[in-house]
């Protein structure tokens, strides 16, 4: 599967989101290159999901802008951005088979049937679920269901894959397996992925670069090696397990 997306850079320019008096995002500046795997890391309530939902277009910004190269996208509707989303609660259609769950987005986009069928098979192969294609979600394990959710996100060949704590409902063993799986899928597709987590191990093992967030702001950005070697803020050191 090849991505149709040929952008070079995603840019967040002073991205803000307020809920009443609460500034959930206080002006996020960030540049992400195509092909990167970025982890947004931080404790509960720091604004990770808000940032992801703003990127997807599910929440309007209250300040700043989002750009794909020289195209401003924060004014576009979610379907016009066409990003792939994977959430913590996979929200599959319970009455549809795995294959139909994965095909759904392509049908909505009006992709011709033969082309859609081919892409669905490719996506199912990517997440290794060909053998489960005719089952209903309720007949699958939690890990398999989350793989259906991933297949559904990638089958539309999105410029950007957004994942919000996709493994947090799985048990520890499955989490480890799926971690490797997610990295493998990212590399196989050459996609650009933004992955939200509060789990530093997950961020360290998955990401090319980690964006550490606190209270609606970015505290530090770096590769796992950089963050581990030179935590710029005490906060970060604390979070990475330095102080005790
Ligand atoms: P995280 O995903 O990092 O746990 P969130 O982005 O969900 O954090 O939330 C950031 C802050 O914004 C929190 O204080 C949260 O209570 C608040 N918040 C998030 N969504 C809403 C909303 N729809 N209405 C009001 N406050 C919200
Ligand atoms: Mg969240």
Model description:
Helix content is about 35%, strand content about 25%. Helix 3 (about 100-110) packs parallel to helix 5 and helix 4 (about 115-125) crosses helix 5. The model has no long low-confidence stretch (mean pLDDT about 90). The radius of gyration is 18 Å and the shape is globular. Strands 6-7-8-3-9-10 form a 6-stranded mixed beta sheet, with helices on both faces. Strands 2-1-4-5 form a 4-stranded antiparallel beta sheet, covered by helices on one side. It contains 9 helices and 10 strands. The structure holds adenosine-5'-diphosphate and magnesium ion (MG). The site of magnesium ion (MG) has 2 residues, from helix 1. Keywords: ATP-binding, Nucleotide-binding, Transport. It comes from Roseomonas elaeocarpi. One of its GO terms (molecular function) is ATP binding. This is ABC transporter ATP-binding protein.
